[in-house]
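ZP: hey, is the flavin mononucleotide complex queued? I don't see it on the tracker
AM: it wasn't, my bad. submitting now with these inputs:
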Amino acid sequence: METVGIYVFSGTGNTLRCAEALRDALAELGRGAALRMIRDGSEKASEGDLVVCYPVYGFNAPTPVLRFCRGLEGTEGGRVWFMKTSGEPLRLNDASSAELARPLRRKGYEIAGEFGYVMPYNILFRHSDEAASLMWETAKRRIPAAARMIAAGEGAAPRPGAGAKLMSALCRIEHGFYPLNGRLFRVDAKKCLRCMKCVEACPVGNIKYKDGRFSFGGKCACCTRCAFSCPADAIHIGIIDFMRVNGPYDFARDPAKAGPIRYCRRAYERYFSGQ
Ligand SMILES: Cc1cc2nc3c(=O)[nH]c(=O)nc-3n(C[C@H](O)[C@H](O)[C@H](O)COP(=O)(O)O)c2cc1C
């Protein structure tokens, strides 16, 4: 049986976690899957069915994922599923794949379905580790159903409402904002450990270190991996620095202790209860 190509862009690991769980669930069903990372979007995909995995950025997909979809070869009979993660369970995120679907359809792909999982914010504010664990447990429980649909060639294409389409269209301005804002990133020299984790982590190669100084180019996708993975919390992320989240979540806490999430409380409750 043909292998499914799982292509993943992940800034801070949430989407990769979910994509790995999908790969493992497909393997349990006897459906081979190869997981490959999208970095700057210039990667080429194998022939056949694809799952494109991405985190929602500003009600849209990250620009490297858009570049990846635009750069794919044409196909005959290839199908695409989207798997996305987002920090909030709002239906306003429902049109985030629309921009990706357009070039894919032109290249002959059938948009076969979409699966979305809520994972903790890597920007805006920090969820508690208990809430992060509840999100991860919920995603893990639901991902096997997505694997069964993919293995059976099934799925429902997204049907976003008017509000989601409008938000997605308005927020596309962020595609231009992220590279500009990325030039404003700076490293706090007093805190910096010179460990180079940020330079190594940046998926688009936007951070350079030369003669004792860091510089940030104009390619930032705003994945926040540099700031999130900095062990000294030394990276300022431009004019959105007040939204910075630093350091990994502990996903092994007791989800029962998550308590209510105050922001968008009803939407989270609906999501966790499976409605
Ligand atoms: C620049 C940026 C914009 C974001 N915009 C949204 C958004 O519009 N809606 C949402 O629910 N989450 C948003 N998020 C949160 C991420 O989608 C969420 O934390 C995701 O799970 C991160 O996945 P990753 O760890 O694979 O990068 C945004 C994150 C970043 C960095």
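AM: back. The chain has two domains: 4-170, 176-243.
ZP: great, adding it to the tracker
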